[in-house]
Amino acid sequence: MDKTEAAAADATIDRSMRDVDVGAPQEFDPTEGGSPALVRNNKDQVWVSQRPRPRRNRKSAAMRGMVRENIVLPSNFIYPLFIHDEDFNTAIPSMPGCERHSLDSMIKEVGEAFELGVKTFVLFPKVADELKTNLGVEAYNPEGIVPRAVRMIKEAYPESIVCTDVALDPYSDQGHDGVVEDGKILNDVTINQLCKQAVCQAKAGSDVVAPSDMMDGRVGAIRDALDSEGFTDVSILSYTAKYASAYYGPFRDALDSHPGFGDKKTYQQDPANGQEALLEASLDSAEGADMLMVKPGMPYLDIIRRLKDNTNLPIAAYHVSGEYAMIKAACERGWLEEKDVVLETLTCFKRAGADIILTYYAKQAAQWMKDDGLI
């Protein structure tokens, strides 16, 4: 905008609008005729005689803040961290800004996020190939990477909340969430292993176990397993509506956990189905889940809202790796403003009904909120 344009923009507008078309063809005046679109007020200004004007509640930042319906805070976030048993970090090319952390680096990352108000973390391990088996027995090794990581975080930051993923895919030589036989994922045999995994994680100090496997009946079995071992205070965040989505690719890169054959459509939900999520939510609630998750997030805001409207349990949304990668790619090309689009995205989750948001942007978003004086 040049100086002439700027001066024109700052000029006072004659709100009578009577001379606005002087020197120009004028075929229509909205204030005239038998059914005028606008009328004139007592000051001879053009006027839409409408009493309710929603823009009054948007007229300033202070006013918008006063009436804002949904506010996202760092305390709403769960920060996913990829870990591996190495003494160095490894970048994840399909997830710029994310990396597999050594355990020492993990503690540093937790500390930095904790200082910004992010108090909840979930761990995802990259397991060495030689430790992977069809039965996933490494999943309940008390000296495995996840139990050690949990103990380290709870020792360094006892007030943090540590969540642990309950599923076999990081530990499976088949790349599936369960035990495989003749190309089929065995439901009940898998749950047997998941119960061992959940109890092992609880013994290490996990505050929340998060079964992501989508086996039928696993929430109830895990609840009973935890309770029978005295872990009645350990919460279950159930991946209730986990869809067989195309948005998981970068995550599987991070953990080297792509399916060894086929896909996961026999246990994860069909993306075409919404009503089915209510069935899963009803079952998980009855089986003792404390929180219900929808995964992925942005393409499934309608599912978040359905669950919110049909349960009294807190709802979590997972802003998954593919969604993260899409934003990163667009921002790297200059097509989007990263901070603005990320904070809008996170607010959309809250507006749709999510109480909890798992996002790889947790620490960065918290830093932006601090920089803007929001926290």
Walkthrough of the structure:
The strands form three sheets. The chain has an eight-stranded parallel barrel with strand order 3-6-7-10-11-12-13-14, surrounded by eight helices. The protein has a two-stranded antiparallel sheet with strand order 1-2. A two-stranded antiparallel ribbon has the order 8-9. With 375 residues, the protein is an alpha/beta fold. It has helices at 3-10, 61-67, 103-115, 145-156, 187-204, 218-228, 249-255, 275-287, 301-310, 321-332, 338-352, 362-371; strands at 39-40, 46-47, 77-84, 90-91, 99-101, 120-126, 161-166, 179-181, 184-186, 208-211, 235-242, 291-295, 315-319, 356-359. Helix content is 36%, strand content 17%. Helix 3 packs parallel to helix 4 (145-156), helix 4 (145-156) runs parallel beside helix 5 (187-204) and helix 5 (187-204) packs parallel to helix 6 (218-228).
What's the helix count?
12
Q: Give me the strand/helix succession.
A: HEEHEEEHEHEEEHEHEHHEHEHHEH
The SS-based structural class is: alpha/beta
Shape: elongated
Q: State mean pLDDT (0 to 100 scale).
A: 93
Uncertain residue segments: none
